[in-house]
Write a structure and sequence with these properties.
Four copies of one chain form a homotetramer. By secondary structure, chain A is mainly beta. The first copy, chain A, has one domain: Hypothetical Protein Tm1070, Chain: A, CATH 2.60.290.11. Chain A is built from no helices and eight strands. In chain A, strands 1, 2, 3, 4, 5, 6, 7 and 8 form an eight-stranded antiparallel beta sheet that branches. Chains in contact: A-B, A-C, A-D, B-C, B-D, C-D. Chains A and B meet through strand 2, strand 5, strand 6 and strand 7 of A and strand 1, strand 3, strand 6 and strand 7 of B.
């Protein structure tokens, strides 16, 4: 039954890694996060494409989220094929080998007190 | 007609209880909340499973939301079978005996001014 | 075509009017808002029911949103049949005579800098 | 396959451009944003209608989002047929020639620390 939780394709139209931070790292470092819940009994193989305003998309970034696990990926930490530049608008498309649930969160600590925002990503299938 | 409001399975991929707070409790204590609306005429028996990044899921946590009632559950308050650790990424899956609506909210008061975020959970059936 | 924008029943499981504010009113008064877009060519007659944790639901609160208009209702401003108490968890169910789109927003200015959160309400038909 | 990502009509019931800002522009200028992801292989021609509480809708505002690109439009920047007034509740309806994904974000820096909120827009087809 848990194999039927979520979708295999998710989109996030917003994306932006703030350029600086205020407060102790890593908890209060400004970050852009893609939270994935894999409630199924099989590992989820993910491929993430990153879209920009003024150049071709890059990726896929690949990662595995274990069966019955969650993973809160910071876009800040992506390295292969290339880091995502800070202070640059982007968007993302996440494809998974099994159904998962994807949620988008940003913590912005550029000013003295941090700001937060979150939304479910948009399920595309 | 109110028995048709919402879904019986909801997922929240994001979850994190901030490690400290700033401001008067309980209103401004940092908290992670799962708000449930049961607009039906029958009590809703809920089972919540909590998923982690690096260990098996725990639960079910059980609670009842009365007919024609709402309940704003703080994940901080869950005790049985075990408290949810602070400063630890998690995700949750909520199953209900009747249709309900579930919304996820965090209040983070680690810095001098509180931050808020909310999103509808993802309906899975 | 605009008569097909949105749904006629929406639910918001989260609801809470903060107890105090910091900053100039009305813009920075703490408030809980239900934003309605009526993109249709007919007026929308709305009925809102408010649900609580420990007592029966109250309502309906009635209002009209004109054809091709938006209305950003502050729950703080509801008076008939009764005001919604502050610092009290609630939830809401909005029914409309025509299709509309409903979004939930809170501005919380209890501390020195305001916090914001928003989400689309959950469409129920 | 990427031609099937998203919808062609999206609604955002909330809209408000804060009247002032605190912090370096343009990053921390208060703004209301409509983020669009066009994951398809064709350019997306967009038409945006803006709805108000007390006067007829205005628009369409037209823009193009290239194939395989994102665009993070600040409502603040719209000029033709007319700028959107600050400190005025509005709502928006976005129609696209191809499927896209739309997300709504506000950065409010009226007080000393900025606040953020985001949600997926509501897909209408």
């Amino acid at each position: 039954m848990s194999d039927e939780i979520g979708s295999r394709t998710w989109a996030i139209a917003e994306g932006y890694i703030p350029g600086w931070s205020h407060g102790p790292e890593p908890a209060l470092e400004s970050h852009e996060t893609c939270c994935v819940l894999n409630a199924s009994d099989r590992d989820a193989e993910l491929e993430i494409m990153i879209f920009f305003e003024d150049r071709p998309a890059c990726g896929p970034y690949r990662l595995t989220v274990g069966a019955q696990r969650t993973f809160h990926l910071r876009f800040n930490d992506l390295r292969d094929p290339e880091p995502i530049p800070k202070e640059t608008p982007f968007a993302s498309l996440i494809r998974s080998s099994v159904r998962v649930v994807v949620q988008h969160t940003r913590l912005d600590s550029r000013q003295a007190a941090n700001a937060l925002m979150t939304t479910m990503a948009h399920p595309c299938d």
